[in-house]
Write a structure and sequence with these properties.
heterodimer; A: mainly alpha; two-stranded antiparallel ribbon; B: alpha/beta; 6-stranded mixed β-sheet; 17 helices
Amino acid sequence: MPEKIARALSFRNISALYIFAVMFIVFSIWVPDTFLQWNTWKALFDSQAVTAILAVGLVISLSSGAFDLAIGAELGFGAIFVSWLLVDKGVGLVPAIALTLLAGGMVGLVNGLLVTKVKIDSFIATLGMSSVLLALIAWVSSSQQILGVGASLESIGTSEVFGLTLPVYLMLAVGLVVWYLLERTPIGRRIYATGGNIEAARLAGVRVAAVVIGSLIACATIAAFAGLLVTAGLGTGDPTIGPAYLLPAFSAAFLGSTQFRGGRFNVWGTIVAVYVLATGVKGLQLAGAPIWIPDLFNGVALLLAVGLAKHEAIATRAGVVRRLLRLDRRGSGGSPAANESAVHDLR
Amino acid sequence: MTDGRQLLRVRGLSKTFPGLKALDDVSLEVSSGEIVALVGQNGSGKSTLVKVLAGVHQPDPGAEVELGADGRAGLHFIHQDLGLVGTLSTIENFDLGRRLGRSAVMPAPVREEARRAQELVGGFGAHFDVRAPVAKLSSAERAIVAIARALDGWEHDRNVLVLDEPTASLHGDEVDKLFVAVRRVAERGAGVIFISHRLDEVMNIADRVVCLRDGRLIADVPRGGYDHDDLVELIAGEALSAAEEVATPRPKGEPVLRARGIRAPTIAAMDLELHAGEILGVSGVLGSGREEVAATLFGAGLGTVEELEVDGVAVGQLDPRRAIAAGVGYVPGDRHREGAVMGMSLRENMTLPRLGPLRRLMGRLDQREERKEVDRWIERVAVRPAEPERALELFSGGNQQKVVLAKWLRNEPKALLMDEPTQGVDVGAKAGIFELIANTAAAGAGVLVCSSDAKELALICDRVLVMRDGEVVAEVASGTQLSEAGLVRAGLGIARQNGNGGEPATSGAEVSPHA
């Protein structure tokens, strides 16, 4: 068992937590007055809850092997759509929320059909959809903010429980549901299998088209929900907010995939990654860094995360091969048994 | 044709892989203007020899490989996939090697290029639009483009062209076109090594035939020194007493799978009946249709089945889901691309086709039960190391294949369809897989094994269907003539030892036209 614990605590497995610890210490010494304030942390938790929800939704689509580059626009669409329903159409709160989630789901359905039936690469399909949604947002809102969404929606975004706003708890709830779906149900197994090797999954009887469509629907619905929370937090429907969420969500999902589950996209790794990235950005801002720091930080984090994941896969395989070759050269004749023990000894 | 100057000389070439001597003291010479055919059945060492020559593998110490008297001759390899970019034109494919323009950024002289490309292919006796994307050309024309590109600009009498099964995807008159080109190459003084399974072609084009068997060079005979039957004997070897090694045939049970009108790009039409408790083999060379039988039955390929019955129930055309529900399992030949999700763990792979029985309240997957079940299967099929949480890609090929087998056996299939079940499997694990196949049949399932390895089929099958050119040309039952040599003979076009379903051997040096 100690071997298992050592592996669980290894840098490779939970690097984000170690990075977090280092950043925490550095910023505690650098800007102790502001960094160590509870209000700083409260603001951090509250402001990143939406990003975390979005990133968790993205985990579903990435796990099924589909990129959803429209999540930013989907979030923006959800934000505008709910305020348009409430303000311009005078729809009640509950139906407005339900319709917004439904609209998000429809967007995901279109994405899914484009990918599986029209067979457009998910990259291109969702990139196109993203532009269509931005146009839709501008049309619905006339590129103006939609003011006065009402106290009832605002209360969802701003009311506090135990010192944190409601979206933080909603984020945990969404995380829990998606985690259960992905890691504890046959559906999740099929999603990961489809993302891992779509042809092998199909030959194992998985309805891969349905899996991809379903994943993109879930992703877009969650994105619309995140947009709704943004509107709730601001009290206005802002037509410009969507695209800014795209990169942080992707950075977090990819960085998250290097955590806990050895290269697999996963919910808790992603949520941790959101907050680790946000902590870095926050610390730098408190230390007086210029306004473009978040963009730089998220971009570099995405590149590093994907680069590390690639490197890890190559290093693992190279390790096995090296051992095999070494055995071979030793003149053991590379008997199958020896080869197996080499594979066995790895890590 | 031969002017005697040696372009390639190989002496005492051996290549040892762990547990296998793939090449054993092979010596070979190719002279200018000579076409040497390299024949031998699957696993005889042909591809290893090509790979050693290409520098992919290092030969064992002590081998001598000499390129021409001055060591400056060149080797060019044309593989089956040709290495062309389908969306680019012939001209552009030529350009990939070397541009005609003055430098990489200067525009190339368009008209000049087209003229030269036309000249080049014309030099091989071909005439087609060099501006069309090569994907639009016929297979033979594409092969000529590849050959022309390989030899372009070289002094022909200094070069050896190695053609690795260039005709596997070609049809009758296409082969003739290609042969015209190959002869031109030789006439200009290059040496050619021509690898093929089709003996009629070999007889047609080769000045000399070199035969490999079990890694040893067993014959090097000039044109006229052999006839078709001699070649078959050379390749297949003496009829071993393989029939005696086969276990006594199990009594045939009820048919578990009955198919009529199997059609696919490489299968003309085929019927098939698989019985309970039977291991049925499908043999044939590359391109015979053998590769598509299992996938088509499972509904995973491009082919269709007119009528299909599983366990007495008519099911019509299957797709993978319905096939699994009907009790059919499919082990594909390409494990990495189709057989398993390599990045997922052993446990996850094993239960993927049937997760239903493990589903509990609220859609929960009972992972405790799953672990227990997977542990039992690991024990049963002897996967080593017995680590269910390890990613499948980190197991050896043999163990991966055992996992793929176990994932289907777990469904208790009525019919198990397998393609190349021992591909990429080491010798030790092979025996284990054979045993699993035998046990599966003994437990009452019908097992269909499609394989390019005649030795393996002779060893494990009760009955073997031999395919050629998309049709079943022979059916060999165990105990009579079921031997490696017999299967190879039937597959290559000699039916003299097989009673039923055989067609007369094609004879002479003509290319046999396709039906």
